[in-house]
Amino acid sequence: MLTAKNWRDADAAGMEGPSRTIVTFAGGLVLQPPNRRKSGSVVPPAPPIEDDADDVGSLSAVQVDATGRGARAIALIRERWWPRARRAFSVISIAAVLAGSVVGGRAAHRWMTRTPRFGARDIDVVGLHHSQRADVLAASGIGENTNVLGLDTARAERRIERLPWVERAHVTRRLPGTVHIEIEERSAVAIVSASGLYLASADGLLFKRVQTGDPDDLTTITGISRADFDTDPDAAREYVRDALALLADVGASSLASRVHIDEIHREATGELSIVLAESGTYVWLGRGPYRAKLSRLSAILAELDRQRLQPAEIHLESDRHAERATVRIPLPDEADETQTSPPVARATTPSPGVAAPAASTRASRARGSSAH
């Protein structure tokens, strides 16, 4: 039901001044502008406002409908879009944190791997027998200014293993400034004469040219040329291993305490011969296996010692009689000539039909030294 109220008494018709009318209805409040009148004028009465129930109901329905749509829109935003927004915000936050961590981590890593605070002040090198400490440090690139955290240990190991005597290297580090280098060196078991003298390891590898201070009392292997290593290095290395296998058989036989092998010579056919160090006796062994032949050689040498005879040549293999051995004893004149001859002539000429003996080790080394 609509009503009208005046802020001032409507019966004071003669009063001048503003007056406002507040109209209230079921849908809300409306402020009407003030009625101004001139002095002496009469304010006409406001027209009656009829109560229209249909208009009031329509207005209320529109407001209710608008309120419902807003509520549904808000609920839809909260239900669908707000979780997505939260997830997106979380992803962005995590990405920002990770980016900051990466940048900060790189800066920290750069500082830690370059600061002299972690410099290598203590460098331990163990396992050296032939290699020099200075050579190991120079090859590794490790010095007092090397940062321990920035040190590439695998690269340092590879560089150290390029040294001829070094077979394996192991580099470790301890904070704040200690580096430990452990060296495992090769063992030289023979000298190979191939356009020069080279030290050979047990696996047939020629790892170093012989220099002053290197072992020089090892058995020399001859008959393998430099061309063999250039043409087929695997086959040449196998030739060296065959000679080393014979040397191992000698060491495992009864000859080990009796003789020392000065030289092992390999023929082009693959047959082997040896030169004894003490007497210079040339021994033809032929093809393997050699253990049975070495046992026969030990018995022959024992019998010759008993008879006080010094053989010049011993042939343990015959094309017709493999079980027989041929021994050549030099005549007294030949023995005197042999004793007064230089070391090159220590091995005498073999019997007809037998391959020439290998030169003595001292002669081979002299030739190898001239090839340097």
Describe the protein:
The protein has 372 residues and is α/β, with parallel strands linked by helices. It folds into 3 domains: 1-8 and 19-35 and 51-112; 116-185, Roll (Ubiquitin-like (UB roll)), CATH 3.10.20; 190-370, Rossmann fold (3-Layer(aba) Sandwich). The chain is built from 8 helices and 15 strands. It has helices at residues 53-112, 133-140, 153-160, 226-231, 233-252, 291-306, 332-340, 361-370, and strands at 3-6, 21-25, 28-32, 122-126, 166-174, 178-185, 190-193, 197-200, 206-209, 220-222, 261-266, 272-276, 282-286, 313-315, 326-328. The strands form 3 sheets. Strands 9-8-7-10-11-12-13-14-15 form a 9-stranded mixed sheet. A 3-stranded antiparallel sheet has the order 1-2-3, with no helix packed on it. The longest helix has 60 residues, at 53-112. The protein is elongated and about 135 Å long. It starts with a strand and ends with a helix. 22% of the residues are buried. Residues 1-31, 55-59 and 339-372 have low confidence and may be disordered.
Write the layout of secondary structure elements.
Blueprint lengths: L2 E4 L14 E5 L2 E5 L20 H60 L9 E5 L6 H8 L12 H8 L5 E9 L3 E8 L4 E4 L3 E4 L5 E4 L10 E3 L3 H6 L1 H20 L8 E6 L5 E5 L5 E5 L4 H16 L6 E3 L10 E3 L3 H9 L20 H10 L2
Helix pairs in contact: 2-3
Concise structural overview:
With 372 residues, the protein is α/β, with parallel strands linked by helices.
The total count of strands amounts to 15
CATH superfamily of the largest domain: Cell division protein FtsQ/DivIB
Number of H/I helices: 8
- Overall shape: elongated
CATH 2nd-level architecture of the largest domain:
3-Layer(aba) Sandwich
Query: Under the CATH scheme, which class of the largest domain?
Result: Alpha Beta
Provide the structure class. Answer: alpha/beta
